[in-house]
Amino acid sequence: MDRLWAPWRVEYLTQPPTPGCIFCAEGNDRELLIIHRTPLARVMLNRYPYSNGHLLISLHRHTAELGELAGDEMRELFRVAALCKDVLARSSSPDGFNIGMNLGKAAGAGVEDHLHLHVVPRWNGDSNFMSVVADIRVLPEALLATYDRLLPFFPTAEGA
Asked: Of 29, 54, 71, 144, which has the most beta carbons under 10 Å away?
């Protein structure tokens, strides 16, 4: 019998939910998987990604309501989404992207109370039998390896 090992998942499965909002947490950017910051937003790797390089963009301001965003916040979300698409295109050469939001639990939002945008690189043929028959995703690269690989493609604070 073949076995698939995903030891990093045990932390997700056994620990109680982290108090507070993952998008508002402060601390070490690498530990929080925050790969880029702007004055209004942050980019972080999804801890449980659909594919390698799955990025999340959130505003620093805590809100769940799309209609509450100011014009500069809306522009920043999509400016940073364009930056993330460019970074992933240069670093990973995907064949396409999914970019979007899940608003509300029924729509699949894992974090309902802080609006965030997903940028997911996609490759032709990347949906495989594991996702179809076993609700399992096979990711060929460790999360922090993805972080280290993508980081040099983002502009530094001086160049943001």
From this structure: 54
Q: pTM for this structure?
A: 0.78
Q: Indicate which residue of 36, 54, 116, 118 is catalytic.
A: 116
CA geometry: angle at 81 spanning 45 and 69, to 5°?
A: 105
Q: Give the C-alpha separation, 78 to 53, whole Å.
A: 18
User: What are the angstrom distances between the C-alpha of 81 and each of 10, 14, 34, 62?
Assistant: 31, 33, 15, 18
Say if CB 47 and CB 65 are below 8 A apart: no
- The HSE-up count of residue 4 (CA atoms within 13 Å, CB side) is 9
54 assigned to active site: no
Domains, the chain, with CATH or none: 23-150 (3.30.428.10)
